[in-house]
Amino acid sequence: MKLAAVDIGSNAIRLQITHVTHYNGNINFKKLEYVRFPLRLGMDVFHDKRISDPNRRKFVKLMKAFKLLIDLYEVDDYMVCATSAMRESENGRDIAEEVKQDIGLKIQIIDGNKEADLINIALWNYIDNKSYLHVDVGGGSTELNIYTNQKKIASKSFKIGSVRTLDEDVSPKVWKSMRDFIHENIDLKHKITCIGTGGNINKVFELTKPRKNKRYLDIAKIQEIKSYLEGFSYEERVNVLNLNPDRADVIIPASNIYLAAMEAAKASKMIVPDVGLKDGVMNVLFERNQVKKPII
Hints:
This protein has 296 residues and is of the alpha/beta class. Helices cover 43% and strands 24% of the residues. The protein contains twelve helices and eleven strands.
């Protein structure tokens, strides 16, 4: 069985195609294709409330390319999810309808809670009976989820994201509301561990050159990497550190969001599992296809 997940974010758009097989009693997920295209829809939307005509045309072309790949791989089922940029855009739904009518690709524009729920599906292997604060930083929003005893006890989406904060276009009230949410739902007398998801925390983790099988960062290490990055200009981050151009400018604002959440929760450690929205979507697709036909 072949499955495809498309994540339409504010900073980039991703397609992953996965082959699911069943062998010797084990279910295996093998990645066949992964494409990340740096189309920054959020820059349009967070300034002008709508996706510009040039980016609209690029977006439609990209969806045509993704649909071709989905068809060429003979995918059995797919899901396309759009997050904060398209849901806040005045013309986001019109563009989604254009893609549906002209290309035959259905786009689901999901809210922050649904986005968090999909990501959480991929996190369960990392959650036990301890207390956790999950911090997912995207281009346009940050989703916070709090877990205790393997139960989600609180969840909220905030309009704080790496692209949105590039021009410091986030009011102090929004930052305060995020801190207040953490303080109101976490007992600061007890130890809590953060779980960080999103492309920027994965890149920060990679820059630490971690030991094999290590999947966590101390807050001091995140602060150290952030200071290290601040020592380079944007051009140097691209050409010396070899960061993607659309990563080089947002990684520091994103680091500030992760650190703000950790400091509010008085957390000293963040697990970085390298999962995201597309992984949750894959799980949903897999589950809903179990009742349709067996895995081959």
